[in-house]
Each structure stands twice: as structure tokens, then as C-alpha cells.
Amino acid sequence: MTLSQPEDDSPSWIRVNILVAMWQKNSSIQYDEGSTRLCRGVQAVLQTQLDRHFVFGLLLKQCGLRVFYGNRSGLLATDSWIDVRTQHVKFIQVVLAISSLPPRHLGWDQNMKLYLNPHPGVREFRYTTDPNVQLKDYGPNPSDAQWAIFVPDRYTSIMGKWYLTIRLITTFESEATEVGPITMG
């Protein structure tokens, strides 16, 4: 999937699937720093991707892997490291499992679609994971985007109505976060 970059070449958190932080050494200082940066990356993803419930993160050090799960209420991590030297099968299983998950299992809300207005009078709605969605479709700022939100009726999750948002009332972007070297996957 390709996505056009913003004109200023700054990184975009719009289409991040999972976060990966990598460190060369096994020191506890680097672990703490990596965990902090991963946590800030999770915050940045959730602030930017309004249709995202949660995000996975991987923290890799010289010989270990730890899996993180973050949502708007907090961050969880596996209680032990996967040693990539002795538990290489488990390491490969984790990477393959995460890489093969569908969008809803990676945290995207399937009850929200981005409203696109390609031509006057034409309404188009797409999931943000659609490869045809471009950065420009969000408008000047992701918080300016309009959304179609599905609200199921009280008897079934299949039947219901779609509603179109007009504008975002509030945003969590007021918290300034500086995120260091994290690979967007």
C-alpha cells in the first residue's frame, strides 16, 4: 500500500498498522526509553486515527521481543520477553500472527468510514484501510475529516443507520508528544 506523504515530509501517523521500536542493547535504560517511546507512539496513533480502538506495538532489543497492546485507557505489555535466540519459533509466530490480522483485529472500527467528496454531488464512503484512501482525503488536518458512523439498532448489530458527522467537537491532540525513532509498519 502506498500513501502520499505530506508536503513537509513529516511522518504521518494516519496509516500506521503496528508500532515497532528497536534497540541494540539489552540495558534496562534502553528498555525504559523504548517503552516510553512506544507508549508515546501509541498515543500519537490513537490521537490521529479517530477510527482506531487499539494498536499493537513490538519492542525489540538485541535478543528479545515484548508485545504491547495500547488503547485510550492504557497500555499492556507481555510480562516476559520472548528470547529470539531460544524461542525463535514463538517469535516467528507472533510476527506472522500480527502481520496476517484483518483490520478489525488490528483495532480499526468497522462502524466508521471516511467521507470522501471526490466531485460535487458525489458521496463516497471508505474504510481508512482502503488502499485507495490518500492523505489528502482527510483534509488539511485529520481532525477536519468527516465520518460516516454506523449505529446498530437495539435488536441486532447488522441492522441500523449510518450517520454523517459535521465536525469534530473535541480532540485529544492538546497533549504535545514528541516521538522518537519508531518504525511505522
UniProtKB/TrEMBL annotation:
Protein name (Swiss-Prot/TrEMBL): Fungal-type protein kinase domain-containing protein
Native organism: Antrodiella citrinella
InterPro entries linked: Pkinase_fungal (IPR040976)
Lineage: superkingdom: Eukaryota
Fungal-type protein kinase domain segment(s): 5-113
